[in-house]
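Researcher: Quick test of sequence recovery. Tokens follow.
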């Protein structure tokens, strides 16, 4: 028979440390709660409506995929968390939810690279101050309760570490849990994750104790019933906790085989299973009755949606980045990211701990119950992988039901790197560092993302423009200023955006919430990047503007991977009503209409690949640092046909003007037969935008005369100033290069 783990209990000093960790966690939880506006925490805008419906109607919602309501897919979630929170707020009148629930339908959800517009809701700061009234008060009260669940998780983590290894491990694991910024963020939100993490951690602790002590199920039946109760409540909180019930069955079966005590599985097992079924079974029956699916996942998926294409290896690589960031701290609507150095540090710190743990084989003996912690972590991770195959949801916070066990293993690995006599320094050092980092993220990353904008008093002189009037069915908004850096160079699909700042002024009230549409126009004026959102950083809709106010509005626009390059990028601006997708009319102050409003100097889009290899290579250098590298020419030209000449240019310096390229077809006597003159890239990448080492693929079309006789001809290629007509000279003499052309019958 395996003996119970005999790690000494917490000493008086260690209990003080644990109390300090719990207090620090609670204070940080309050900071996170107040840093994030109501309904902005992860999926809070979907979770709270479930609570509010139960509180107002006294029953669970029924999810209709065709009309899912404010709760969307969360209406099919197991109900325990929502029940408890509805009971907690039953004395509060939350009928004002429609008044404060205004979705920002253009928020940058899941995109932390964009500036501003992080808010999932359109807020009214004057009625959202803590503690608030009605719905706002209920949200804050539920957040406080969720912080309480987090306190329980931190305490359980400490006990789990103490029971598995030592009090020192338990305290360090508790600190690693308490000061994980994502855990703090989720624990300070209206979200069933807080309760599922608590119950998952408690269930794991009770299972570890059963494994270590193996109490007789006839005499200590309550131990098995207690575990079954926790597992049943866990399943009523989140379906993934059903995996812990399966792990319990496996562990009891293993103990029965190893210890030759049949009652552990055949008596203890039914006690756990029956209790869990009695607690949660009705939920599965309800799902079958309503949705013809025991889990209710069919309607959940119908609302959330599935992947449009099977996941690829490239998808996995990309989404693993989101997984790790959302394990440590990816806030809001998965769109408020910590500084990259934070993720680098936490990932490295975690790897160091895991390596340390792997180098302690004696701690991996099955009898130590280590395997239960590892198995539960793998089960939760496998369930997440499975779910991610169905629907994109690879978020690290979804494995938090195993967080306590993961952090116990992490703690033992970190301690393994330090001599025993110095291990006492680990707790204050690591706890202090992580607590400070968590505090800084709340104050320097989360809070600024939701700082409500205020009007500016004037437009900077350098940004002022002649006002452009945007007039809708009612009201007038003026574009009174624009600011762009004079030299912006980006690449297709790159991480560097084109930055534009606009200044808006309301001159006549607007009752509709107009949306700004900012487009990057590439070759042939095709849109290769756009941002549609509410003005004023996406937080202050136009219906709330006051006449005379000026709003500064910064945009970052990223270029699509498919954009053709090189080209200049023009920035177009419009305002439209999203309800009818009707653009406002743009005009100058004197009433001259604009079909297209372009602002600022053009940006430069350059390829992120080396130049192509032309069929014919050259090295012809013109003045102004313009070099012709080679060309491709249509073969087998015939009279009356159009031929294509692709010229490959390279800049060896910065040309001072926008030159035109001439392509002349001449005969042996030098008589001009036809031309194909045009600026480079049909005017989409003029030479004054070329910079050293840029390469430019430049196609010219020539229509051959129908009466052209078969024979040998020449194409003359060069550049000239379109204003003066003066040609650029070739280095070494001349002003053009000659390309032979054979015309077939």
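Model:
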């Amino acid at each position: 028979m395996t003996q119970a783990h005999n790690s000494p209990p917490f000493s008086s000093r260690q209990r003080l440390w644990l109390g300090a960790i719990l207090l620090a966690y609670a204070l940080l939880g309050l900071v996170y709660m107040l840093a994030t506006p109501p309904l902005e925490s992860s999926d809070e805008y979907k979770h709270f409506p479930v609570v509010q419906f139960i509180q107002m109607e006294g029953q669970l919602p029924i999810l209709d995929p065709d009309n899912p309501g404010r709760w969307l897919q969360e209406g099919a979630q197991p109900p325990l968390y929502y029940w408890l929170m509805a009971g907690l707020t039953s004395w509060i009148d939350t009928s004002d939810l429609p008044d404060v629930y205004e979705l920002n339908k253009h928020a940058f959800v899941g995109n932390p690279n964009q500036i501003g517009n992080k808010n999932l809701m359109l807020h009214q700061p004057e009625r959202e101050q803590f503690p608030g009234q009605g719905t706002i008060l209920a949200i804050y009260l539920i957040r406080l309760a969720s912080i309480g669940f987090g306190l329980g998780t931190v305490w359980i983590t400490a006990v789990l570490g103490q029971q598995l290894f030592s009090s020192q491990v338990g305290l360090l694991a508790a600190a690693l849990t308490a000061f994980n910024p994502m855990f703090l963020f989720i624990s300070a939100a209206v979200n069933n994750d807080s309760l599922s993490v608590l119950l998952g951690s408690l269930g794991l602790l009770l299972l570890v104790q059963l494994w270590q002590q193996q109490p007789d199920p006839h005499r200590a039946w309550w131990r098995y019933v207690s575990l079954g109760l926790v597992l049943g409540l866990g399943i009523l909180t989140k379906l993934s906790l059903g995996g812990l019930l399966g792990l319990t069955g496996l562990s009891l079966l293993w103990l029965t085989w190893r210890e030759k005590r049949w009652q552990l599985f055949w008596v203890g097992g039914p006690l756990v299973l029956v209790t869990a079924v009695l607690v949660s079974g009705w939920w599965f029956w309800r799902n079958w009755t309503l949705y013809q699916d025991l889990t209710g996942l069919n309607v959940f998926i119908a609302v959330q949606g599935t992947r449009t294409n099977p996941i690829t290896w490239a998808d996995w690589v990309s989404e693993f980045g989101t997984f790790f960031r959302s394990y440590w701290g990816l806030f809001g609507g998965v769109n408020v990211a910590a500084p990259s150095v934070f993720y680098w540090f936490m990932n490295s710190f975690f790897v160091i701990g895991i390596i340390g743990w792997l180098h302690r084989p004696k701690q991996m003996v099955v009898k130590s119950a280590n395997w239960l912690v590892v198995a539960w972590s793998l089960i939760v991770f496998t369930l997440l992988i499975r779910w991610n195959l169905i629907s994109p949801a690879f978020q690290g916070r979804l494995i938090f039901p195993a967080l306590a066990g993961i952090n116990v293993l992490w703690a033992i690995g970190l301690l393994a790197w330090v001599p025993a006599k110095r291990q006492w320094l680990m707790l204050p050092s690591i706890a202090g560092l992580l607590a400070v980092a968590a505090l800084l993220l709340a104050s320097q990353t989360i809070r600024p993302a939701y700082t409500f904008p205020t009007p500016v008093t004037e437009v900077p002189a350098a940004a002022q423009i002649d006002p452009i009037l945007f007039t809708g069915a009612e009201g007038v908004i003026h574009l009174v200023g624009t600011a762009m850096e004079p030299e912006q160079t980006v690449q297709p699909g790159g991480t560097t955006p084109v930055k534009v700042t606009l200044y808006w002024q309301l001159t006549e009230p607007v009752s509709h919430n107009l949306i700004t549409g900012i487009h990057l126009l590439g070759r042939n004026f095709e849109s290769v990047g756009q941002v549609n959102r509410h003005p004023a950083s996406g937080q202050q809709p136009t219906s709330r503007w006051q006449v005379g106010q000026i709003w500064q509005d910064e945009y970052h626009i990223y270029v699509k991977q498919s954009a053709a390059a090189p080209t200049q990028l023009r920035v177009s601006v419009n305002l439209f009503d999203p309800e009818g997708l009707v653009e406002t009319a743009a005009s100058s102050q004197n009433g001259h209409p604009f079909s297209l409003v372009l602002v600022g100097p053009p940006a430069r889009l350059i390829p992120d690949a080396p130049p192509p290899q032309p069929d014919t290579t050259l090295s012809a250098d013109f003045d102004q640092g313009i070099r012709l590298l080679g060309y491709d020419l249509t073969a087998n030209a015939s009279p009356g046909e159009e031929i294509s000449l692709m010229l490959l240019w390279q800049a060896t310096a910065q040309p001072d003007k926008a030159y035109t390229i001439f392509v002349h077809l001449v005969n042996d006597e030098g008589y001009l037969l036809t031309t194909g003159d045009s600026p480079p890239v049909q005017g989409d990448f003029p030479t004054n935008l070329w910079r050293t080492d840029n390469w430019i693929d430049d196609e010219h079309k020539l229509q051959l005369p129908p009466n052209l006789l078969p024979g040998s001809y020449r194409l003359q290629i060069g550049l000239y100033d379109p204003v003066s007509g003066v040609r650029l000279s070739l280095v070494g003499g001349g002003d053009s290069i000659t390309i032979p052309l054979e015309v077939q019958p």
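Residues 616-743 form a domain with the Immunoglobulin-like fold (CATH 2.60.40.770).
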